[in-house]
């Protein structure tokens, strides 16, 4: 170690240590990107689009890794006279320049693909191709450097040294990066934000490094390339996170649209069913029976309310939009009148309606009342069903309560009370008005509670217009 430090000098040794640490970080980022590419394949199950620039940045990290590694080998073996050092310094120097040019071409291809080609900008595409042609010319000059020594030369003591033509390489590359930055800034609003930030970062750091290196013997290029790689890695990870969140939101939106389509399909089936069973014929027939049974009051009353119950169901099922709570209550009262005829005086109903100026999905409260009567009221002992509505903390609350005198299993285990009907109500409440349904066992019975967020004045106007 001491012989290496004495050969290189303290400053150059420190440079090598820093560059080695940079290589470790780049290896870690490269590994993360390779693993990330596998994650992208799983990610595409949620969203068919892969995360932008994953493949391109992986290639960029490989280029930077080679770039820095070449610089390290040239620094370590420079000044040594062995045959191994002879070839390492020459191959390392050429690879250093070639990888530098490769990074420049790489960024040019990105702006050509994602800006010029994607947006059909033929003029810009021709300009980028012209700049790429200049870079290919530099490649040709680099290949001939062994014979011309135009950019650099290796001294007799096996050390790298810049030649008189080095500013041509440096200035051409600087101008190319400035061109890339200008194109990205001018087209900023048209391109994806992450893409713009990535290009500006890669090109900006290299530009600063090359401008500084024009007047310095110390080479900042590889160090700045490492900083650019680190920032690009953080930008990419943030973009990956944002892309995943956007995909989840898109999936939720698609799911909502699908539920809405299913709801509309259900409405269409209801309308078709109503058309098939001819509700007017049924209503007219029931009214005829009512007229002929006036001499039998109990039969007359039963037929009259059953006719009202059916008619309200037919009318409600024909509606595509939510109905008023008052309409829902009319249907509930018709149903409860029929049930009181069965239970006689054993069924009591307690109404506490504090508000009714809102809408609900059709048949969203009546099934809860039916459940309360069917499962909460004993035919032997009877019971009470309570129906209430009120406002609380910006919400409209509807409660259906029974006193629990009926014999039935615990609500959490009762399949009938948590069956398909209730699931249907839950879905329709969420879809139509953003409401939710809760079933609760209380000491004196069972409560079914519907909670609906109350609309503001602006929301009501928007919904009315829509």
UniProtKB/TrEMBL annotation:
Membrane-spanning residues: 12-36, 57-79, 85-108, 128-148, 168-187, 194-212
Signal found in the keyword field: no
The entry's keywords: Kinase, Membrane, Transferase, Transmembrane, Transmembrane helix
Domain (Signal transduction histidine kinase internal region): residue spans on this chain: 271-347
Span of the signal peptide: none
All copies of domain Histidine kinase/HSP90-like ATPase, residue ranges: 365-455
PANTHER family recorded: SENSOR HISTIDINE KINASE YPDA (PTHR34220)
Record's protein name: Histidine kinase-, DNA gyrase B-, and HSP90-like ATPase
Organism: Ruminococcus albus
Species lineage: Bacteria, Bacillati, Bacillota, Clostridia, Eubacteriales
């Amino acid at each position: 170690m001491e012989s290496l430090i004495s050969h290189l000098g303290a400053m150059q040794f420190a440079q090598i240590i820093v560059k080695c640490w940079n290589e470790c970080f780049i290896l870690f980022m490269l590994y993360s990107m390779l693993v990330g590419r596998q994650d992208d394949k799983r990610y595409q199950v949620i969203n068919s689009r892969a995360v932008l620039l994953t493949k391109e940045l992986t290639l960029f990290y490989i280029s930077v890794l080679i770039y820095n590694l070449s610089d390290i080998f040239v620094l370590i073996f420079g000044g040594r006279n062995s045959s191994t050092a002879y070839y390492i310094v020459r191959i390392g120097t050429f690879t250093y320049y070639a990888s530098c040019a490769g990074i420049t071409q790489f960024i040019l291809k990105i702006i050509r693909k994602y800006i010029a080609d994607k947006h059909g900008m033929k003029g810009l595409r021709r300009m980028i191709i012209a700049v790429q042609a200049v870079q290919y010319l530099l490649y040709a000059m680099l290949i001939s450097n062994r014979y011309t020594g135009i950019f650099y030369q290796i001294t007799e003591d096996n050390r790298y040294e810049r030649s008189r033509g080095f500013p041509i390489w440096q200035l051409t590359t600087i101008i190319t990066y400035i061109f890339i930055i200008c194109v990205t800034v001018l087209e900023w609003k048209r391109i994806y934000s992450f893409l713009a930030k990535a290009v500006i970062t890669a090109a900006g750091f290299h530009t600063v490094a090359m401008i500084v290196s024009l007047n310095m013997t110390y080479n900042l290029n590889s160090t700045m390339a490492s900083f650019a790689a680190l920032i690009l890695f953080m930008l990419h990870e943030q973009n990956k996170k944002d892309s995943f969140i956007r995909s989840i939101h898109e999936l939720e939106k698609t799911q909502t649209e699908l539920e809405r389509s299913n709801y509309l399909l259900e409405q269409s089936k209801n309308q078709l069913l109503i058309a098939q069973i001819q509700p007017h014929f049924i209503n007219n027939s029931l009214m005829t029976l009512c007229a002929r049974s006036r001499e039998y009051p109990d039969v007359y009353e039963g037929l009259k309310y059953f006719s009202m119950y059916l008619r309200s169901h037919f009318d409600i099922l024909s509606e595509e939009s939510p109905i008023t709570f008052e309409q829902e209550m009319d249907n509930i009262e018709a149903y409860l009148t029929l049930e009181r005829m069965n239970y006689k005086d054993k069924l009591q109903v307690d109404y506490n309606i504090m508000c009714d100026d809102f809408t609900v999905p059709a048949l969203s409260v009546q099934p809860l009342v039916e459940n309360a009567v069917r499962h909460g009221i004993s035919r032997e002992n009877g019971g009470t069903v309570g129906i209430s509505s009120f406002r609380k903390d910006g919400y409209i609350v509807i409660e259906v309560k029974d006193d629990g005198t009926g014999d039935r299993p615990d609500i959490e285990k009762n399949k009938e009370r948590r069956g398909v009907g209730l699931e249907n109500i839950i879905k329709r409440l969420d879809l139509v008005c953003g409401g939710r349904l809760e079933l609760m066992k209380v000491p004196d019975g069972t409560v079914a509670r519907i909670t609906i967020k109350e609309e503001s004045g602006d929301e009501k106007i928007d919904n009315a217009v829509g």
